[in-house]
Write a structure and sequence with these properties.
There is one protein chain. The chain is of the alpha+beta class. The protein contains 5 helices and 18 strands. The chain is globular, with a radius of gyration of 17 Å.
């Protein structure tokens, strides 16, 4: 096949302790999946069905373990926020996946940051408009190496944390997810056919806040390493 213009390269994330990379197809994000974070965003946590937004695959910023990558402060915002999350990498596709079989579709897990132009997100939210300008911009999805589930197992608990310039800003535990990873996969697969290469950001604990140029942002999920970026 010939193309009218050169095709874009495939975004990819490193695999932990390997020379392989994991190709990224789509990025789905779960909104307000920790009760305390839902409250700090002005919502009441409940067990209504989870809701989702997307980021483009090329929003990924791959970060090798032990490395710190510069991420540009984005344009058109004065309130740029950090959010640390467990990221699920899908390795087996499906529709209407059951909760009981959902883990069979997981290839691995990683630490990710859902970087957010909060002022734009809130302005759009208040007008009932989509969040893309606040969530789906360039370099909005830094991700550390993916740890294969065959090695890590499937976590149901574990510390989640984030620091800015060494000061703790976010602390939580995977046990506090409103919707578990299997529940999230099962629900999302009702609306989209999940395919290998899909990533799911599972939500962030409380304590989100602003970062400025020069800040060193580090975060981790117990058992899946740590991710570090510097705001450039």
């Amino acid at each position: 096949m010939s193309y009218a213009i050169p095709p874009a390269s495939i975004p990819a994330v490193p695999v932990a302790d390997s020379t392989d990379s994991f190709p990224v197809r789509r990025i789905y994000c779960v909104g307000r999946n920790y009760a305390a974070h839902a409250r700090e965003m002005g919502s009441d946590p409940d067990r209504d069905p989870p809701f989702f937004f997307c980021k483009p695959a090329d929003a990924v910023v791959p970060v090798a373990q032990g490395s710190t990558v510069d991420v540009a402060y984005p344009p058109e915002t004065a309130n740029y926020h950090h959010e640390v999350e467990l990221v699920v990498a899908i390795g087996k596709g499906g529709r209407y996946i059951s909760i009981d079989s959902a883990n069979d579709h997981v290839w691995g897990y990683a630490v990710g940051f859902d970087m957010t132009r909060r002022d734009l997100q809130f302005a759009l939210r208040d007008k009932g408009r989509p969040w893309e300008l606040g969530k789906a911009f360039d370099q909005s999805a830094p991700i550390g190496p993916i740890v294969p589930a065959s090695r890590s197992g499937h976590p149901t608990a574990g510390k989640v944390w984030l620091t800015v310039n060494g000061k703790t800003k976010q602390e939580g535990d995977l046990a506090d997810l409103i919707w578990s990873v299997p529940e999230t996969i099962a629900h999302l697969s009702k609306y989209f056919e999940l395919l290998p290469g899909d990533l799911i950001f599972t939500g962030t604990p409380e304590g989100v806040g602003p970062v400025v140029r020069g800040d060193l942002v580090s975060g981790g999920v117990e058992g899946f390493g740590e991710l570090s970026i510097r705001i450039a």
